[in-house]
C-alpha cells in the first residue's frame, strides 16, 4: 500500500494544532459538509472510467447498488478538508475488484460525512437497517468483579480473546497512509507500549525484520493478518 489513490503528486503539509504539521480535524459537521475543492483532472478521469466499467459490469457489490449516476456526479468533485481524500480513495478497491461484497473503504474520519450520500445507505444495508439516526445501545458490562468461571470443568471453552483496533488522531485511515506515516505511527506506539509494566507489559513485534517462523506463529495464533488481501492493495 502506498497512500491515497489521488495523492500521486507531491503533497503539501497543512499547519495543524500548536504549529505542528499534523492537520487539525474539521471543527464541526458544517465545516466538513461545505468542503468542496478542485479535484485533480487525472483523478476525475480515473473516476469516470472506473464508474463506467462498474456500471457495465455484473457486480453485486453494495458500491454498485448505491453509487448511482446522481450520487456519483454529486460526490466526484468533493474532498475531505484535512487530508484531501477524494471519492477515488473511497471506491478505488470496488472499482478494481468487481467481485467485492461492499467495495468501499473510508480513507479518513471526515469521509463518512463528506461522502455520506454513499456511506449512509451502504452502512444501513450492510447492518440490516441501522440508520444514521440510530444509536448504539448503552453499555452494560454487569458487575465484572463477580464474573465467575464460565466453564469450571473445562468442557466447552478452549480459548477466549478480546481484540480491539483503533485509529490514531492526526493520521488518515489505512487506504491513505504512506510508508513514512506507518513508520512514524510504529515508533509512537512501540515507544508508548515499552513503558507499560506489570500485567500490561508485553512484547511488541515490528512487521519489518520479522522471521518467517515468528510471522507464521502470530498468524496461527490470530494476532497477525495474512498477507495477500487484494481488496486492500
Describe the structure.
The protein has helices at 29-33, 41-56, 62-66, 69-75, 87-96, 111-114, 116-126, 179-193, 212-220. By secondary structure, the protein is mainly α. It has a domain at 33-126: Transferase Creatine Kinase, Chain A, domain 1 (Orthogonal Bundle). The longest helix has 16 residues, at 41-56. It is globular. 20% of the residues are buried. Its EC number is 2.7.3.3.
List keywords for this structure.
9 helices; single chain; 233 residues; Transferase Creatine Kinase, Chain A, domain 1; mainly alpha
Write the layout of secondary structure elements.
Elements: H1 29-33, H2 41-56, H3 62-66, H4 69-75, H5 87-96, H6 111-114, H7 116-126, H8 179-193, H9 212-220
Helix content, binned percent: 25-40%
Main structural class: mainly alpha
Rg estimate, integer Å? 21 Å
The end-to-end span amounts to 6 Å
- Unreliable parts: 9-27
Write a short abstract of this structure.
ATP binds at residues 159-163, 222. Residues 15-25 have a biased composition (Polar residues). With 233 residues, this protein is an all-alpha fold.
Amino acid at each position: 500500500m502506498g497512500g491515497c489513490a489521488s495523492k500521486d503528486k507531491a503533497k503539501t503539509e497543512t499547519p495543524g494544532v500548536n504549529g505542528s504539521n499534523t492537520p487539525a480535524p474539521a471543527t464541526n459537521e458544517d465545516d466538513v459538509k461545505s468542503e468542496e475543492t478542485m479535484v485533480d483532472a487525472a483523478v476525475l478521469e480515473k473516476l469516470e472510467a472506473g464508474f463506467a466499467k462498474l456500471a457495465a459490469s455484473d457486480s453485486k457489490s453494495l458500491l454498485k447498488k448505491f453509487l448511482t449516476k446522481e450520487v456519483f456526479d454529486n460526490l466526484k468533485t468533493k474532498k475531505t478538508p484535512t487530508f484531501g481524500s477524494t471519492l477515488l480513495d473511497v471506491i478505488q478497491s470496488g472499482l478494481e475488484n468487481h467481485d467485492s461484497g461492499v467495495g468501499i473503504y473510508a480513507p479518513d474520519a471526515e469521509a463518512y460525512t463528506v461522502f455520506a450520500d454513499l456511506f449512509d445507505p451502504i452502512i444501513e444495508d450492510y447492518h440490516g437497517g441501522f440508520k444514521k439516526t440510530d444509536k448504539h445501545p448503552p453499555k452494560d458490562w454487569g458487575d465484572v468483579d463477580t464474573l465467575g468461571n464460565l466453564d469450571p470443568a473445562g468442557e466447552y471453552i478452549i480459548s477466549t480473546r478480546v481484540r480491539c483496533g483503533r485509529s490514531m488522531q492526526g493520521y488518515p485511515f489505512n487506504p491513505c497512509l504512506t510508508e513514512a506515516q506507518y513508520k512514524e505511527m510504529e515508533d509512537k506506539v512501540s515507544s508508548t507500549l515499552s513503558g507499560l509494566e506489570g500485567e500490561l507489559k508485553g512484547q511488541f513485534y515490528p512487521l519489518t525484520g520479522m522471521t518467517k517462523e515468528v510471522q507464521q506463529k502470530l498468524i496461527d495464533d490470530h494476532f497477525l493478518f495474512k498477507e495477500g488481501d487484494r481488496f486492500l492493495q
